[in-house]
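Follow-up to my earlier ticket, as requested here are the two runs.
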Amino acid sequence: MSTDLGGLLTAVQQDLGDSANWQCPVEFHDSLALCALNSAYSLRATSASVKKVISLYRESRATADTDSGPDLLQFMQEAGGPEDFARDVLQNLSKLPGTSRLRTVGIHEALTNRLFVIQRGLVRLA
């Protein structure tokens, strides 16, 4: 093994530590709502802030672990729209990185566009 490769492997092992101590990745197999929230709130954010958002959503929705995109859109509307949802439900008014838009506004737009495409039959669902 070359010195460069050996040094790289040593550095990786030092930085990552024992793989037995690694945490499992966050997965939301049955909830597009949680996936969307996790994705948007993970951008340039701390793990603690994302966990708080997910926790607050789960506290607000008994069905959070199976909520679909349309379920999240409906809940946002019931809260008064994406801005009120961010403030009152998630208690987080952080913006999408590089923009002046609330993260929930971006989520709302993405889910609305996805729903539009599906309803128009412009994409086939597997």
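Run two:
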Amino acid sequence: MPVITTPQEFDVDDLFVDVRRVTGYPLYLKCEGFNFAGSVKLRAANEMVESAERAGALRPGMTIVESSSGNLGVALSLVAVSRGYRFVCVTDSRCTQASRRLMQRFGADVRVVSRPHPERGLLGARLDLVRRLCEEHDDFHWLNQYANDGNWTAHYQSTAPQIAKAFPDLDILFVGAGTTGTLMGCARYFREHHPAVTIVAVDAVGSVNFGGEPSPRLIPGLGTSVRPAILDASVVDDVVIVPEQDTVRACRALLREGFLLGGSTGTVLSGAVRWLREHRPDGDLTAVAIAPDLGERYLDTVYDDGWVDESFGPDALTGEPFTPPPAPAGPAGGPTSAAPGSRPSPPHPQPAPHHSADPARVGPTTTGSL
């Protein structure tokens, strides 16, 4: 029987959901929401705080300040109150009301930015406010998840080894790209220990992480309007870019099977299925996708028909997000086994844009810049 003294000690790390019945492909979701923070961000939050303490940058009586669209803010609120720190979260209007209320119940001071920076969007405006707060208060410490090595080492040390242990024959790993901490930690681990595994990043339309054109995004979580300093595209094999309408459809497809998962999970799942449909329609592989969070915080957005209709139009509420791969037809039109190495291509709608994560295309990571 587990007995804990702090909330961050509890984190279910070995739960995988087989979503083949939903998607038609051999794909497993690593569910990261079963902890007291409700998302994968608890690991990064705890590691960044502990690293700052070890370095002497964070001391008793100080205030932690961080920019977050929701999940990291909730995780840091939990870690801060359990370790005796005050916490200021700078977020923006996309942060769900549920996440704001959770942070406030943990004692956080939540500052909401509503006016985007003309070039760097809402994230740029958030970062400007964080810098201003640190200039005004000597006892504020900015963890800076966008450039903090603790953001990715947390997943190098835990998330990636857990996946490798559960799936020693893993072929493909799909990871969402927000601040890219989870992506970088997992990609670096597999590059060093299991280089045959293909790492596919999943990002949102409107994000600049992999050289895309910036545009407004409504669902918090994946994507950024300022490229994170910790992102190194050279350890990523491919990238899938997902429209937010497909995020909604994927979330609701899971809900119809009884799985209430978050917006980031819907984006990752949609991207994974699109990539598999185009590149591995034979389905002869083992694939894992990381599901970053649960769905309760999205009840007023992704799972609200009125919000979806107003935000994306009625088409986002209709249509099936996944087309299962058809069985190969034999000479008489009946099903048969595909020949070794053959990859029949099922009919499907035009996939979401994707491209190889060529560092020459997206530009090298500039350490220390934001």
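The only thing I checked on run two: Confidence is low (pLDDT under 50) at residues 326-370. Let me know what else you need.
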